[in-house]
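Justification of resources, computational component.

The compute hours requested in this renewal are based largely on the per-chain cost of generating structure records like the one below. Each record pairs the submitted sequence with a full structure-token output. That output is archived, and it is also reused by downstream analysis tasks.
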Amino acid sequence: MSTVLLCDDELMNRKVASKILNKEGFNVIEAQNGKEAIEVLNTQRVDLILMDLMMPVMDGYEATTIIKGDERFSAIPLIIISALSDKEAITKGLKLGANEYLTKPYDIIEFGLRVKNAIKLGAYQNMLKEHKIILEQEVAKKTKELQSALIEIQKSEQDIISILAKTAEYRDNETSAHTLRVGEMAALIAKKIGWSSEDVELMRLASPMHDIGKVGIADNILLKAGKLDDEEFEIMKQHSAIGYSILSQKETPLLKLAAEIAHTHHEKYNGKGYPNGLIGDNIPLSGAIVAVVDVFDALLSDRPYKRAFTLEKALEIIQNDSGTHFHPNVVELFMDSLDEILAIRTKLQDV
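The structure output for this chain reads:
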């Protein structure tokens, strides 16, 4: 049984309206003013509100404003009641959010029909509201599931990247922590430049893949103890393009950045690098950053073709090649961050 809240200060009007409503099968709760009506709404479930406009204590205008401004009650259909001649009052009530109006004295047939229609409207609105809540819950559930799945995918991608980086290390006979140090140093410089935390993290994960293309270089060249001749060096240079080919198979943010770094970290600021001879700011910043930290860490590490340089000599090479090999802004940030760079080398020592 639907419940109607009848708010009218005149006893006779309430008796007439209640009789009609009871005859139509509705349960009726009476209130003598807007204040009492709101008190009822706070304690009982109501399907329809019939609101007289002219009442003491709190009139129908104020009560309607409060009811329609409260999301707990705003969806309840509200019919204002006014004298037939007072069209201005009716218009004002409708502007405040009333759904319908009735005029006094009541026409029994019209009264019953409008109340029934308003009850149906309220039931339909409640159904839509409940359906919306269910949909929102389902969307939230699916979104959470998708987010969890995305995290798993990203973790799997990161794990694969890490494994490939390790593969490149062992293939190249490099020190076991070189790629990790390159990742941490590159992320530090990216942070100093002002990259977002998300992009800094991508840099940390992508940079260790810079030399993955070396898996496609023959052992007699890759592991040669002495200096490469011109023909051998041309073959060695292919590792940048090979790395790009390996990493550019998918367009995820991580792989896209890793492919960019693999392709451009041997470009030189003066345009004499490879594979494309890019000049200055045409070199992606990611590749320019890795170029500095990769060379610096390699200079301080033993290789089949050389012994580790001293820190002083390594820094001299980095600074002397600023503006020719290396992007000068990156070198400046690198030197400003030297204490943190050296802390990374201390923390991630070779084993």
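Residues 108-172 form the longest helix (65 residues). The two ends are 79 Å apart (CA to CA).
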